[in-house]
Amino acid sequence: MRRSPLTSRAVLTVAVALAVTGVGAGAGVLGGRRLLLRQAALARAAIGKPLGEQGYPVDRVYQRSRGNPITLLLVGDSIAAGLGADRRRRSLGVQLAKRLALASDRAVRLVCAAEVGAETWQLVAQVDGLSADVHPDVTVVVVGGNDVIHRLKLSDSVAHLESTITTLRAGGSRVVVGTCPDLGALTAVPQPLRGLGRQASRRLAAAQRNAAVRSGAYAVSLADALGPVFRSRAEEMFAVDRFHPSGAGYRRAAKALLPSVLASLDLLEVLPPGHHGPSRRLQAV
Q1: Would residue 244 show up in a list of annotated catalytic residues for this protein?
Q2: Can you tell me the distance from the alpha carbon of 213 to that of 68, in angstroms, rounded to the nearest whole number?
Q3: Which entry of 244, 246, 260, 275 is annotated as an active-site residue?
Q4: Residue 11: what pLDDT?
Q5: Residue 220, Cβ density class (10 Å: 0-12 exposed, 13-18 middle, ≥19 buried)
């Protein structure tokens, strides 16, 4: 049973507060810290997991009749897993696979190893857990929101991302990183917390972008590509929990990621704004 949007807003407010204030750091009042912790525990217990803990099973070959399939791997968190889409075909992976098939005129084998709730340090396990027959031509990484919410050290997040990119490239995959989405787009979270969440997520996104390009990957600024429309059309872009994208939101995300995916496969020469190619000396796999 889905819980009320009001309950979702309550837990998101507390989660962002904990993430960007260091659980009361700077307030100088122990009671305030305890209150935040108590509220967070109560809110988490109240909301549960309204969208469940898994995205749709999406692994299959799309547009099979086009032949010569490209293997597309998705790793990361609940966004990469497509949590929030009302139908499988509206998840991020499926929408991106179909767009890639049309643009390349080839079939696309989609493999999704992303996990709901994943943080950057868990990427290596997702890659290591792939079946022996999975050899991705291109891997899309979307991760970071949980790192911000759980206050993980930025340098640690970046190190894990770089390690994952290096591993993927060594295995022959091109890599595209969708940087941390803008938590400031969560209109259900009131100010000033929303602004603080925006700052924290943008800091991580910038660090992810720099890490990606210096490690030989492409980077797509999801905050710039998606933030404005998610803020202006929140009812349409967000799922019922007001945190994860809806099917319409994932359609926007797939469209935003596609140019870098095509460029990584040498199917597009000029990247649009918000897309960043790898350092020239690292472009070859």
Answers
A1: yes
A2: 29
A3: 244
A4: 46
A5: buried
For residue 128, indicate whether it is catalytic. no
Token pair 């009671």 is found at: 31
Distance from C-alpha of 207 to C-alpha of 147, rounded to nearest angstrom: 13
- Between CA 259 and CA 196 the distance in angstroms is 30
Which residue in the block uniquely carries the two structure tokens 């940087």? 179
Instruction: Choose between 33 and 187: higher pLDDT.
Output: 187
Question: Choosing from 91, 173, 241, 246, which is the catalytic residue?
Answer: 241
Which of 8, 78, 173, 246 is catalytic? The answer is 78
The pLDDT tens digits for 1-44 are 333 333 444 444 445 444 444 444 444 444 444 543 443 444 34
